[in-house]
Amino acid sequence: MTYRLAPIDTGAFVAERDGDHHTVIGSVVRRSDARGHVTGRTEFFEDVAAPRLAHLKMHRSARHHARITDVDVSGALAVPGVLRVLTHADVPNNVYTVLKLIGVEPDDEPVLAVDKVRYLGEPICAVVAETEAAALEGAAAIEVGYEDLPPVFDVEEALKEGAPLVNEYQGQNYFVYEGHHCRRIRFGDVEKAFGQADHVFEWRYQSSPIEQAPVETTGCVVVPQADGRLRIHSDTQACFFTLDNTALILGVPFNKLRIVGGTVGGGFGGKVDVVVEPIACVAAMAVDRPVKFVYDRAEEMQVSSPRAAERIVIKDAVMDDGRIIGRKVTLYVDAGAYARHSPYGTTKAAAHLPGPYTIPNVWADCHCVFTNRTPSSAMRGFGVTIADFALESQMDRIARALDMDPLQLRLINAYRDGDLKAHRKIAEGTALVEVIQKAAELAGHELPEAYRRMSSTTREGL
Amino acid sequence: MPSQIVSLVVNGERREFIAAPGATLLACLRESLGLIAAKRGCAQGACGTCTVLVDGRPEAACLVAVETVADGSVRTLEGVTSGGELDEVQSAFIDCFATQCGFCTSGMIMVAEALLDRNPDPSEDDVIEAISGNVCRCTGYRPIVIAIMEAARRRREQAVPR
Amino acid sequence: MAIQAVHVPESLDGVVACSARGGRIMGGGTVVMPQLTSGSTAVTELVSLRRAGLGGVEVRDGVATIGAAATLTAVGEHPALAFLRPALRTIASPTIRNQATVGGNLFVAQPYGDLAVCLLALDATCEIAGPAGRRDAPVADVLAAGIAAGEVVVAVRVTLPEPGAWHYHKAMRRRLNSAAIVTVASVTSAGDRRIALGGLAPRPVRAVSAERLLSGRPLTPENLTEAGEAARADIDPFDDAYASAWYRARVLPVHLRRAFLP
């Protein structure tokens, strides 16, 4: 058996080492945290020993979309060991949206449901108890009355006239971008391009929600301090973001909170939603004890926000020689019931269009749509990853339809330094041409001389 | 039945603690004994992060009611390090970049220890089967398999009596 | 109601006594403990078999008596049960096999419980103890109807198959540690061929239609495919995260064939 110890192949980076000046490239640098990991001494949030620790468990919605007619918590309060049952009335600023920190409006999500639930598993009541078992038993003993409302699960259904309204705070089933019903790109005239094209190709792409599935589930331990501050041990990937949002929800100055974090048992872009800390802080203040709120595996899979499902339709105007002269994209992001990071993810998707290609006519409508599904949010590369899947699948299909080499098709259309992109920015440091050439070489994929001579800094061969 | 005193030999030392009925071995190690290397990842035996050795064999500590192993012998990752010295598996995990977030590492190392105790010269397939109950979401497993093979090689070369 | 007591009796009599008082029997805990931890069971007392002396494997005159508390690892390590090793290696992980027991496997809902599928094919006998004394029951009855409250399976008895008479194949989503899409186990003795299926109904089932079709006929791909198609009459497949009911029924003939002609 052969294997190598060093994860970096020094052979491939000889030139980049520039003699011995760049000593890190091609060398092995030990991870600073590895010794802690292999000795078991790395302290994750749940490894914090907090005396008199109380436990929080949620009673969650059993409906996709319903009005709440009644909440009876008496069963929970009767369970031995239950300390408190929290409802929306206990949360100082119950309705929030995480991106308010960068100016996104409106506040559209309750920490605990008020009069309506908008997705299966939405938190309604928090039970704080001496033990995890008592908290679970208490949460199960809460009775909620529902009046069912018609749910909507499909982005295009949700945008139709007469569709059930998912989120009253938003007011319509789509996020409004500066007065527009979607995030848009308008560059050149795509309709004219379709008229001039030798071929018009239109295909549709669809992805499902993708769960980050960290091995350590989302959670926190909140420890009240002698000076009245709260110390939050969390596995969030976004410490400051969490601190600020939590303070706004609690209605306390930011300096009343301290976050201890940075050690994350797998995040994959997902642990950024500020979904456990605010209610755990409310609970810790209510019982004046440390409180732990950690998702169990089922909660992690069902209610932690996944990467959004997307639906993407791409229509291209293509010439016989492979030049794409127009690209029209209609993209839907399924935000689920609440905005969370999806307005931003949809903007990222728009920013990524039409892919790393110079296309003179581009039109895009990117919709951030509300449905009665689990709120989606961040996951590494969100907005971009699925768009790339669609864009690059589209490129391959065009190549196949034209009987062209897919790499040559990309080299013809790849953006060059100095090109004006659809967002009216000048492309700089593109390097896509060289990357394709190198990839072709490494893969043993032969390119004709003219394509090997192309460069991202000149217009040679175009 | 009230909580009772449970006695275990943990990492070679007899430890006594009070456990509520049905408390998991995992909860006792972490909360009563302060041994936090074993993690709770799923609480249903599916992820392997809580793996410890019970009487020399790997078991998912989240599935063990502590009463059922009373007076037994338990080995955790804390017991692998001796006098601040890393063993071959631990050092190979560092050298081969077999840890990223670190959450699965404890369980991975414990199944590797059990494997190498029984089979000093495992094949790659043996290693893959041994860790098949342990989920790692970061590495893609390859560096972990490499690290365990490397640890086996180092251990054979040094012929460390164990 | 949280758990009130975990009994760890050191004899079978102790197990029966605790069980008669309403305690739930627990083999390795791989099924019961997650239910307990997640609060999804109302059970208040557990009776562990771990120390009851039921973990042994004895082989005499071609018959193996496997204690109900024998772990799947222990079964695999017994030389006389080597024919079961490939099947055992398809069940969970080595770690879980150190905990999961033969007895527990009988009470697991499909698509888990592949060993129970093997035992059904082997026409195993369950030795059962209860307040009223001991009795034997065919494993088929235990799988179909369970046992009475207060009873406990003490051991399973199987006649060891002749060399070459044992066939096993499990289709799963991964090469290791994954539940059954389709499990096929079969044993031939004195011309009588028994075929048991897993992953295709809430409990392991006999593929009697396939057995009938194959009776007295050679194991050709055509005959096996025909038998697999006939076996669709014997199943009641379900949807889960591993596969749809439709898919399970669709691929059954393929995997039945592969069990005999890998």
TrEMBL record, chain A:
Q: What Pfam families does UniProt report for this protein, alphabetically?
A: Ald_Xan_dh_C (PF01315), MoCoBD_1 (PF02738)
User: Which Gene Ontology molecular-function terms are recorded?
Assistant: iron ion binding; oxidoreductase activity
The UniProt record lists the keyword Oxidoreductase: yes
Q: Which domain of life is it from?
A: Bacteria
Keywords, comma-separated and alphabetical? Molybdenum, Oxidoreductase
**Does the keyword section mention Kinase?**
no
SUPFAM superfamilies noted in UniProt: CO dehydrogenase molybdoprotein N-domain-like, Molybdenum cofactor-binding domain
Query: What transmembrane ranges does the database entry give?
Result: none
Per the database record, which ranges form the Aldehyde oxidase/xanthine dehydrogenase a/b hammerhead domain?
Answer: 39-150
Its protein name is Xanthine dehydrogenase family protein molybdopterin-binding subunit
Q: What is the lineage of its organism?
A: Bacteria, Bacillati, Actinomycetota, Actinomycetes, Streptosporangiales
UniProtKB/TrEMBL annotation, chain B:
**UniProt KW Translocase keyword:** no
Q: Does the keyword Iron apply?
A: yes
Top-level lineage group: Bacteria
Pfam family membership, one = Fer2
Q: Which PROSITE patterns match?
A: 2FE2S_FER_1, 2FE2S_FER_2
List GO molecular-function terms, semicolon-separated.
2 iron, 2 sulfur cluster binding; metal ion binding; oxidoreductase activity
What is the native source organism of this protein? Nonomuraea deserti
**Protein name in UniProt:** (2Fe-2S)-binding protein
Query: Which InterPro entries does the UniProt record give?
Result: 2Fe-2S-bd, 2Fe-2S-bd_dom_sf, 2Fe-2S_ferredoxin-like_sf, 2Fe-2S_ferredoxin-type, 2Fe2S_fd_BS, Beta-grasp_dom_sf, Diverse_Oxidoreductases
Chain coiled-coil ranges: none
Residue limits of the 2Fe-2S ferredoxin-type domain?
A: 4-80
Cite the entry's keywords alphabetically.
Answer: 2Fe-2S, Iron, Iron-sulfur, Metal-binding, Oxidoreductase
Automatic annotation (TrEMBL), chain C:
Which SUPFAM superfamilies does the entry mention? CO dehydrogenase flavoprotein C-terminal domain-like (SSF55447), FAD-binding/transporter-associated domain-like (SSF56176)
Q: Name one Pfam family in it.
A: FAD_binding_5
| SMART domains xref list | CO_deh_flav_C (SM01092)
Query: What keywords are annotated for this sequence in UniProt?
Result: FAD, Flavoprotein, Oxidoreductase
InterPro entries, from UniProt?
CO_DH_flav_C, CO_DH_flav_C_dom_sf, Diverse_Substr_Oxidored, FAD-bd_PCMH, FAD-bd_PCMH-like_sf, FAD-bd_PCMH_sub2, Mopterin_DH_FAD-bd
Query: Where is each FAD-binding PCMH-type domain found?
Result: 1-163
According to the UniProt entry, its GO molecular function terms are: FAD binding; oxidoreductase activity
Q: Can you name this protein? A: Xanthine dehydrogenase family protein subunit M
Q: Which organism is it from?
A: Nonomuraea deserti
